[in-house]
């Protein structure tokens, strides 16, 4: 989502919806690439930092309040492979969700719970990196309605194992 000019974005989305039937999945990076957290790029988002968590929560609240009544809205999505942060070494802007997945997914759950209270008419998805931490998502983020994964499986594709593994942990 954008904090720059929501009215301009709304006009564009309304036009696309009215003319072509477009629907959108509106999302917040929840600190990925330091978006919304206020963290320095070199450090990445710290999901243990209460100030950063407050900033991210406010970012999500602004998004939901601004767009929840738009007719083009299909659902919400939280994050964008945040769980890779801390798993693949130090990469600027990524953060530490992968080093502290319990705290990260608990935070995602708090966001999803708030979204459900503010907008019960739209489901909430997570944008996870592949199928890492399915057990923790099941345990710490039950408020998520839809499991979404950015998966880069190469030439062999997803196969049954991807979906079976998701189904084993999540009823989503």
Describe what you observe in this structure:
The model has no long low-confidence stretch (mean pLDDT 93). It is globular and about 40 Å long. It is an alpha/beta fold and 172 residues long. The chain has a 4-stranded parallel β-sheet, covered by helices on one side. α2 packs parallel to α3. The chain has helices at residues 6-20, 50-67, 101-118, 134-140, 159-169, and strands at 24-28, 73-78, 124-129, 146-150. Helix content is 40%, strand content 13%.
List the helices and strands and how they pair.
Layout: H1 6-20, E1 24-28, H2 50-67, E2 73-78, H3 101-118, E3 124-129, H4 134-140, E4 146-150, H5 159-169
Helix pairs in contact: 2-3
Summarize the structure.
With 172 residues, the protein is an alpha/beta fold. The chain contains five helices and four strands.
Descriptive labels:
alpha/beta; 4-stranded parallel beta sheet; 4 strands
* Number of helical elements: 5
Note the run of SSEs as H and E.
HEHEHEHEH
What is the mean pLDDT? Answer: 93
Net shape: globular
- State the separation between the terminal residues, measured CA to CA: 24 Å
**Residue share in β-strands:** 5-15%
Count every beta strand, where a strand is a DSSP E run of 2 or more residues: 4
How big is the Rg?
16 Å
Helix proportion range: 40-55%
Could you give the order of strands across the largest sheet?
Answer: 1-2-3-4
Question: Based on helices, strands and strand pairing, what is the structural class?
Answer: alpha/beta
| Low-confidence region ranges | none
**Quick one: biggest sheet?**
4 strands, parallel
């Amino acid at each position: 989502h954008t904090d720059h000019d929501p009215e301009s974005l709304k006009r564009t989305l309304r036009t696309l919806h009215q003319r072509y039937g477009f629907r959108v999945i509106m999302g917040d990076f929840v600190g990925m690439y330091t978006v919304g957290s206020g963290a320095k790029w070199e450090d990445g988002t710290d999901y243990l930092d209460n100030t950063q968590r407050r900033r991210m929560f406010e970012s999500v609240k602004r998004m939901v309040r601004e767009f929840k009544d738009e007719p083009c809205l299909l659902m919400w999505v939280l994050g964008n492979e945040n769980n890779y942060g801390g798993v693949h070494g130090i990469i600027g802007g990524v953060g530490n969700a992968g080093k502290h997945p319990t705290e990260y997914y608990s935070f995602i759950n708090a966001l999803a719970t708030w979204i459900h209270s503010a907008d019960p008419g739209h489901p909430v998805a997570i944008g996870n990196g592949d199928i890492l931490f399915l057990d923790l998502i099941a345990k710490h983020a039950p408020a998520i309605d839809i499991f979404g994964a950015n998966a880069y499986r190469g030439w062999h594709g997803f196969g049954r194992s991807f979906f079976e593994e998701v189904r084993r942990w999540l009823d989503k």
